[in-house]
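Late entry, evening session. Most of the bench is empty. Finally got around to the prediction I had been postponing all week. Sequence below, unchanged from the version circulated by S.P.
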Amino acid sequence: MTQQYLPIPYMPPPHPQAQQALPGSTLAMAMHQDGSLQLQRAFNSMAAHDVEALAQELAPHVGMLATHPRGNYIASKLTAVPSAQMAVAESLAGRVIELMQHVHGSRVMQAAFEHLPKLIVKALVDELRTHIVETAMTTNGSWSVVSAFKFTHSAFIVEELADCLALVSTHQHGTRVVQRMLPEAVSHGVETQNIFDALMNIKDLGALASDGYGNYVVQQALRVATVEQCLPLIEKLIPSLPVISTCRGGSSVAETVLRMASPEQVVKATNVLCGHELECHHYGKHVLALLHKTAMAHSQEAACPTETSS
C-alpha cells in the first residue's frame, strides 16, 4: 500500500521586523497577516478602555509598524486613539518626508493628518517646507501632500507648488496634487493668486493646456478662478485655440474656455477659429459646436436685454 503524504502548506518567511517581536505578543500579531486583521477588528469592536489598553501596548512601536506591510494598518488605527497620540506623534516626527513617500508609511501619515490634534499635525506638516515638489512627484507622496493640505491648509504648500507649477502640473503624480489643492484652497479662503500668476507667466500656456496631465490643471484653474483671474487666462489661451482644439486634453480646455469666456472673448474665439476646418476633426468638431451654441446664446441675450423696472 502506497503511503500518502499530506502537502505541507507554504509558510512565508517572517518579515525582518517581526523577528524583533516575541511570538504570541500583541506586536507580533500586528505584523502577522491574520493577527493584523484580528487587531483591526478589535479596534472597531472593543470597549473604549480595552482599546486604550491595546493602544498603550502598541504605541511605542509605531515607528516600526508604520512601514510594515501589515503593521501599518495598526499604526493607522493608533492615530485615532487619544491616549496613544503623543507617542504616535513622537514616532513620526523627523520622518515625515520619508514616511509620506513610503508605500505603507504614506497610509499612516494620512491617518495622522486626519486624527492627531491640529497643532501636532501642523508641526509634522512643517517638516515638508522646501520639500513639497519632490514629495508631490512621487506616487505615495502625492496623496500624502493632498492630505497634508486638506487638514492644515498651509499656505507654503501653495507657494511651493506655484514656484514650480509647469513642472508639477505636467507630472503624472504632481498634477494630482495641484488639481485637488486648488478647489480645497479656494473653498477655505487660502490665497491662490500666486498659482494664477504662475499660469500667466508660462510663455506657452497652450502647451500646458494640451499636455496629457497639464490640461486638467488648466481646466481646474479656470473653474475655480474669480472673474478677475479667469478672464486674463482666457485671453492668453484664445490664440492657442486652433491648436489645442485638435487634441484630446486641449479640446477639453478649449470647451472650458468657451463656457467661461465673456461675450467679447467669444467673438475673439470665433475669429481665431474661423477657417480652420474643425467640423470633421474628431475633437475639434465638439469645440466648434460649443462655440456656435455659445455665440448664439450671447446673440439672443443681446437681442433680448433684461427689462428694467421704471
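Two things to note before I forget:
The radius of gyration is 27 Å.
Residues 22-127 form one domain.
Will write this up properly tomorrow.
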